[in-house]
Write a structure and sequence with these properties.
- The protein has 184 residues and is mainly beta.
- The protein has a single domain (10-183), classed as Jelly Rolls (Sandwich), CATH 2.60.120.10.
- It contains 1 helix and 15 strands, in the order βββαββββββββββββ.
- The protein has one helix at residues 40-44; strands at residues 10-11, 18-19, 23-29, 51-58, 67-74, 78-79, 82-83, 98-104, 107-113, 118-123, 128-131, 135-141, 147-154, 170-175, 178-183.
- The chain starts with 9 loop residues before the first strand and ends with a strand.
- It binds fructose -6-phosphate and manganese (II) ion.
- The site of manganese (II) ion has 5 residues, from loops.
Length: 184
C-alpha cells in the first residue's frame, strides 16, 4: 500500500531550497539589470558578474489552469543607496494574479497597478501576499541577509518586463532609520 504514496516536491522554509522535483533555475546578475537602478553610474561600478537574485522553479506541465511554484532568493545590498531588487513585471496576461509567501529575510513587495498607483507590503518569514491581476510586482531586500520568497502563479500568466522598463513609481533607499521610500 505504501508504494502508492508519492513523495511530493519539498521546500526548505528557511533557505527556500526546492528538492524532490524537477527544478529549473535562472540567475540574474548585476549586468542583467541595466537601467533598473536609479543611479546608472553607481550600477556601472559593480562587478557585472555579481549574482543579485536567483529563481528556482518546479518544471511543471503548462496546460491552462496549471500553476508554477518558484522560489526567489534576492541578495542583500545596495547600488547608489538603492536596495537590491528584482526587475519586476506585469503578467503578460494582465488578469492573472499570483501569491507570494515570505520565507526568510526582510524586505518589501512593491505593487503598482496600470494607473501607476503603488503600495508596499512588508515581506518576512510567514508573510502572505495576494497579488491581484493587472498589478506589477517587485521584491526589494531591505535587510542584511538574503530575502527568500515562494511564489505560486498561473502557467499561462507570462511576463511583461517592457511595460515598466522606464521604472516603477517608487524607489527604496537605505537611510539612517532603515529605509526611505522615494516617489518618482
Ligand atoms: C513569477 C514571479 C516571480 C518572479 C521572480 C523574479 O511571476 O513573479 O517568480 O519572476 O521574483 O522577478 P522578475 O521576474 O521580475 O525578474
Ligand atoms: Mn509574477
Amino acid at each position: 500500500m505504501n508504494a502508492d504514496i508519492i513523495m511530493p516536491p519539498q521546500v526548505a522554509w528557511a533557505t527556500g531550497l526546492l528538492t524532490h522535483g524537477p527544478v529549473i533555475a535562472k540567475t540574474t546578475r548585476m549586468s542583467d539589470l541595466r537601467g533598473v537602478f536609479a543611479d546608472t553610474a553607481a550600477w556601472q561600478c559593480h562587478d557585472p558578474q555579481q549574482v543579485i537574485y536567483t529563481v528556482e522553479m518546479l518544471d511543471t506541465p503548462t496546460p491552462e489552469g496549471a500553476l508554477f511554484v518558484g522560489v526567489t532568493r534576492l541578495r542583500a545590498g545596495t547600488s547608489g543607496g538603492e536596495f537590491y531588487l528584482t526587475r519586476g513585471h506585469f503578467h503578460q496576461r494582465r488578469e492573472q494574479g499570483e501569491v507570494y509567501f515570505g520565507l526568510s529575510g526582510n524586505g518589501l513587495l512593491l505593487l503598482q497597478n496600470e494607473q501607476g498607483e503603488t503600495r508596499l507590503e512588508a515581506v518576512f518569514a510567514g508573510s502572505v501576499h495576494i497579488i491581484p491581476g493587472e498589478t506589477a510586482h517587485r521584491l526589494i531586500n531591505t535587510g542584511d541577509v538574503t530575502l527568500c520568497a515562494l511564489a505560486v502563479w498561473p502557467t499561462v500568466a507570462g511576463h511583461d518586463y517592457a511595460a515598466l522598463a522606464g521604472g516603477f513609481a517608487v524607489r527604496v533607499f537605505a537611510s539612517e532609520n532603515g529605509y526611505e521610500v522615494c516617489h518618482a
